Predict the structure.
Amino acid sequence: MSVDHPGDTSPFEECSASLTSVAERALSRYGLGEAQPVLLGDSTNMVFRVQPLGQQHHASVGVTKTTGHTGFVLRIHARGLHSTQAIHEELQWLLAIRQETALMVPAPVPACDGSLIQEIQVTGASTPRHCVLFHWVPGDFRNDTLTPNNLQRVGTFMAQLHCHAEQFVASQTPPPARQALFCDVYAWRDAPGKAAAHFSAEELAVFAAAAQRVHATVQELGKSRDVFGFIHADLHQWNYLFCGEEVRAIDFDDCGWGYYTYDMAVTLSYLEDWGTFPALQDAFLTGYQRVRPLPRRYAACLDVFLAARILYMVPWILSWPQPFHIAWGPRYLQHAVGRLRRFLER
């Protein structure tokens, strides 16, 4: 997801037929010209599920290390959000995870010419659309049925991901430069975008004070290896899924350099209001610590990074054409100020 939609046109404003045409043109470069793309989501990027006719293209797209193959996912990137190099760094990390670990993540699919990123020119647009094809990751979302045992496994998965990311970064020359998507603490000093129209002056002051505390904390933490590294940055319960008891992860579009505690805060932030949150959090931390120690000052900084997630999510929700573009949007905005007030009181 993203805070905004840079560039000349938001994906919400583009004709779905036009983007379907982009998808079809991209798929032809993979030998999948006869497949019918089906739109799955348009929260930032446009994501299509692709089911090859009769699965006849498996050999040509090099299926490896997967069972129960059920097609592909085509991502059409929002304009201006990531450079070609940044997308390439994400894909190289995913390839390394698949080759060097047992973790199940989306495997990028090369086109017929071997390239991983397709640039599709759109009539009337100043820049092409970047398209990437992935193997579908089978599994089930558990959402409201998550148990402590589930969260323990998610914690272990995240810790393994962090360990691998350290090795991946060390092996790259030059090292990846991609930054994980994070809140813009400076923007909150001057009521960003639609926030000034949606919140009162007193409420905007709460956002600004929270942003200042986040800024002070990250400045104090610095970027040493025990707090800062390559992270997923969006591993909530709609981006991790289960195949039996195995945890799998999707949607690495927000990944990059960031704070380990922020990565953990994203996972926990969606569960804060649950009555079972203490047990879920304890299980998550138990699973994480089976693989690696908690980041330095985790306990002291968790609330700060939970607040950072709110400061990130609110402008993203307000960037939608309507707050109800995703059903939980209005409720999130309604409770955001109260959550930040409690954070500042603590």
